[in-house]
Amino acid sequence: MMNKSILVVSGLTMDFGGIRALDRLDLDVGPKEIVALIGPNGAGKTTFFNCLTGIYLPSDGDIRLVSPQTGRGSRLNGLKPNKITKKGVARTFQNIRLFSQMTVLENVMIGRHCRTSSLIMGAILRTRKTRKEEQETIDKSYDILEKVGLSEQANEFASSLSYGAQRRLEIGRALATEPFLLLLDEPAAGMNPQETADLVTLILQIRDEGHAILLIEHDMKLVMTLSDRIFVMDYGKKIAQGTPAEIRVNRAVIKAYLGEDVGPDNA
Amino acid sequence: MDYFIELFCSGLTRGSIYALIALGYTMVYGIIGLINFAHGEIYMIGAFTSFIVATVLSIYGFPLAAIVVVAGVAAAIWSSAYGYTVEKIAYKPLRHAPRLAPLISAIGMSILLQNYVLLAQTSDFLPFPELIPEFAFMEPIAHIIGSSDIVILLTTTVVMLALTFLIKFTRIGKAMRATAQDRTMALLVGINVDRVISATFIIGSALAAIGGLLIASHIGQINFAIGFIAGIKAFTAAVLGGIVYSGSCSGEPDSGPDRKFCHRLYFQ
Amino acid sequence: MITVKEVKRSLLVSLWFVFLTFPLMVIKVNPYERTVSWRWSNMVYVAIGTFVISLLAKAWFVRKERRMARQQDSCHARIPIIQRILQRPGYRYPLAAFLLGAVLAFPHLFSTYQANIMTTALMYIVLGLGLNIVVGVAGLLDLGYVAFYAVGAYSYALLNLHFGLGFWTVLPVGGLLAALFGVLLGFPVLRLRGDYLAIVTLGFGEIIRLILENWNAFSKGPSGISNIPRPGFFGLEMSLDQAMIYMYYLMIGLLLVTIFVVNRLQDSRLGRAWLALREDEIACQAMGIDKTRTKLIAFSLGAFWAGLIGVIFAAKTTFVNPASFTFMESAIILSIVVLGGMGSIVGVILGALILVLLPEYLRALSEYRMLAFGAILVAMMIFKPEGLIANVRRIYCYQGRKSNTALKNDE
Known about the structure:
The structure holds 3 protein chains of 3 kinds.
Chain A: E1 7-16, E2 19-29, E3 34-38, H1 45-52, E4 60-66, E5 73-75, H2 81-87, E6 89-91, H3 104-111, H4 120-125, H5 128-147, H6 163-175, E7 181-185, H7 193-208, E8 212-216, H8 220-226, E9 229-234, E10 237-242, H9 244-248, H10 251-258
Parallel strand pairs in A: 3-8, 3-9, 6-7, 7-8
Antiparallel strand pairs in A: 1-2, 1-4, 4-5, 9-10
Helix pairs in contact in A: 3-5, 3-6, 5-6
Chain B: H1 2-32, H2 39-59, H3 64-91, H4 100-120, E1 126-127, H5 147-169, H6 171-181, H7 183-188, H8 193-219, E2 221-222, H9 226-241, H10 247-267
Chain C: H1 4-26, E1 27-30, E2 35-38, H2 40-74, H3 81-87, H4 89-109, H5 112-137, H6 145-163, H7 167-189, H8 194-214, H9 216-219, E3 225-226, H10 240-266, H11 269-279, H12 281-286, H13 291-317, E4 319-320, H14 327-340, H15 345-361, H16 369-383, H17 403-410
Antiparallel strand pairs in C: 1-2, 3-4
Helix pairs in contact in C: 1-2, 5-10, 5-13, 5-14, 5-15, 6-7, 6-8, 6-13, 7-13, 11-13, 14-15, 14-16
């Protein structure tokens, strides 16, 4: 375990009525680290993301975030989603949630919202500060589009993009919020091999620029090549954690995925 | 204490009628997730149709029992026809449109129907013929609960039992429940979703028509604008009871007297 | 294009409608004199009318499908003519100058009566633009918009009655009061989902009207408040005609300000956030947009404009009573926004002119006005949900380091 983690989750529990979707989950992410969260369908991975980003309020447990820039820690439980984004956690969605009636560029510009501040008066009077901020927003958004390879389609509607491009746009939009921790929910779902390969390059590039990444993914090849560490979940519990090499041979993981009866320890 | 019981009874009466209308909202909301703003107007059309039929029959001298039955059936038939048509025109083409579109279309339908009745008939209040006579055996408790209250309570109870039976035990009821849970899935297992939706509108409208007939004969007058207020009240009831099938019946008896109390307080 | 099958279908449709409208259209009873009149001629009108409408609707859908097919081939979105004209800077300025000239000269070319009607139309344009922020841009279906209009009107009437405050003092006060009401209502309500929000705002509109109607001590009840002074012009005495023309120019001024402000707002960080909120609330929050706050701003801004126009309405008619603030008024303003095209300023202007001026000039048909409103709302949603003039997204220019490559995309 890293001693200078930027995200520390301890004992996170989420109950929906009588169903325990997350059961005393512990997890940590270090700076510039790529951590994968895997597990069979219904294991609670997306629920975990929703707890992290404030969409759900966890029933119990603690989520702490430590900013690598300032070194200041803060508790995320009970914060509204927008506050959490402002603190430096951004996410993408499993079922793509782009603003489909807005242009590609505007989608990314929305991501800049929490890093800008002009309001009614600034907008009406179009003060120098607002104009500067607006131009900065456009420029930074263009830069991000170049990074995710969509600058050619900047002024097209988001809904007209191909599936893979929409996933990349979601990543771009999340990057625009200047996160130090990026949560990717099945970024490779529905992509062809070429698109997946591009995605791997993109994710590595994002990591090299200083973002830590926590991703949910079913594509094992991608997970094994990308991740520094892997957490495995089943039925809301963490059943294993370790490097890709360790996970590959972990019996509990194999049981969870293949249903082999290995031992009585995981009731 | 008597006063309280009287209030409670009349609240219960009104409440049970609103429950009939509320069921229409609930069913439609359950199936297609739309607040059917035109539902109040369907109820109003039911009341108007029964008014016209009843008055015509009474002018031609038919016996009271025949008038009640024919007016009730006519109201149910035409209200259902209107409900069916409204769905086909205003909602069906918008099944896959953005969220606001069917809502605005529903408001448009409501305005359209209201003014259609206004233009086709009149803007005046019309006296509704008295369809429920004062029964002699009710004499001892008439100061607490009137004959019409009893009839209304009995009718709504019967209708609701019938509806519960329909939804719980018949084929179409099962199809409706399936569609309400997951429309795509219902479609995939071979349920004709269009027909289920139509059936929902028809049943809901028929219920509203019965409600219309009862409330009009209870109050004794109607006009083209009654649908709007009744619609809002019934919708409130639907929300209080929760937007699920049996909910709006169970939520209603409590809110009936409450509303009555508020009315009293408001006007004093 | 129209086959025998379609004609047969339309015949069936018209038969169905004859059945449907039979009791209400044909029979008319007089319960007092106990007479029945059978209006069989209506049946013929219904039959012919629905037959034609049904055929026309069918033809429209066929055409639309063909156009869609063609569009998919060419891969280019069709931009409407008006939009294309507006986008060309060469046309835009002369057109604007001409319009401004026509608008300024209007009261001198036509009668004061005409100017008065035009003033009403202008008021509805501003109301439409205000509601457009709420419904068209931010996607919050507000059915009680007229409540804020009433707040503005009554704040002028009451502040003038009790404290003798003048028009120019109350104008901003009325707007701010309405905005305050917007915040007060919006706070608990804006967490609701679209359709529930619609119901609650509808209820709020009715509550305000009922309060005004029943709280006699406060608002003088249904009889309303009369003798509200018209706006003054540096203490100048004006005749009725002059006052009307003055009112007209006042509205022109306010409209220009409104267009300017709304345009800038739509084109700002806030405007983008509203649009995004309309599309997907959860994604919005995940992008760091404060949902409640952004909605609240939209809601209260819309209310602010309704309040301003309320004050002007009170000053124009010199009389307010609750009957002016019914749900139908909200419905009219909503139809303006929907008809014009949600989110589009030009569309709202066009929609308001059509919906206000048409019934005004077709006096004979004025009783069909509300019927037409309803029909327009439904028909617009079915045939042209984007409105007369759809809003076109702005294209932004990149002026960063790699400007030459990026700019090529914009041209």
